[in-house]
Amino acid sequence: MGVVEAVCVSAKKGVVKKAQERVELKKDWGICGDAHAGTWHRQVSLLAGESIDHVKETLPSLLDGAFAENLITRGIDLGTLPIGSKLRVGDSVVLQITQIGKECHNSGCAIKKATGDCIMPREGLFARVVEGGNVEPSDEIMPVSQLFLLACRVDSKFGRILKPPVNCFSREKRAGFMGMTAQCYHQVKMLDRQFVYGIRLVG
Fold first, then answer.
1. CB-based contacts of 34: which residues, under 8 Å, 6+ apart?
2. Regarding beta strands 44-48 and 71-74, do their DSSP bridges make them parallel or antiparallel, or are they unpaired?
3. What percent of the chain has pLDDT over 90?
4. Which member of 21, 81, 121, 152 has the greatest number of CB atoms within 10 A?
5. Per-chain mean pLDDT for the chain
6. Residue 90 dihedral angles phi and psi, to the nearest 5°
7. CA neighbor of 151 nearest in space, from 184, 198, 110
8. Separation between Cα atoms, residue 62 and residue 11, nearest integer Å
9. Can you give the pLDDT at residue 65?
10. The pTM is what?
11. Using alpha carbons only, how large is the chain's radius of gyration in Å?
12. Residue 165 contacts by C-beta under 8 Å, 6 or more apart in sequence?
């Protein structure tokens, strides 16, 4: 499981994007207000913060969005995700990978001209929005196929064991499987009740 390190937007294509506090993603469209949104396959772009770190060794003043990326991630190996795989971002957003890498505009961006290399063509991922919602820095991001709730034991306050049978994409759905509201779910966690989760890699 990883986190979203930054969310970036630009009003025009072919320019650097600027970091935002929060962005709204619409299903089958992309990020509201971003030039790359639309009814096509490259609605959202992702780039690993670890990859950007290597470039910062040469250009330490590099800002988020310099590669025209929408989402900067950390702690998730984007390079292992094949086309067609899905990512859950935050509580509700689901993205589906549609393309890996692309060509730079005008035979090379400013980053490539300055460093002799550009990571976006080979390490950037592109996706379409399957389910919309809001995304902001620090939101969790993970492949949805890896999140499978095998068992959850609730202490004597609730007195039962439930085994959800299907993938759970959000806290609300997990709470539904337990027969509780999302509010109750969070309250129990805050009270340090006894929860035991079994996680199995299924994809």
1. 9, 10, 11, 17, 23, 70
2. parallel
3. 53
4. 152
5. 77
6. 65, -150
7. 198
8. 20
9. 93
10. 0.71
11. 19
12. none
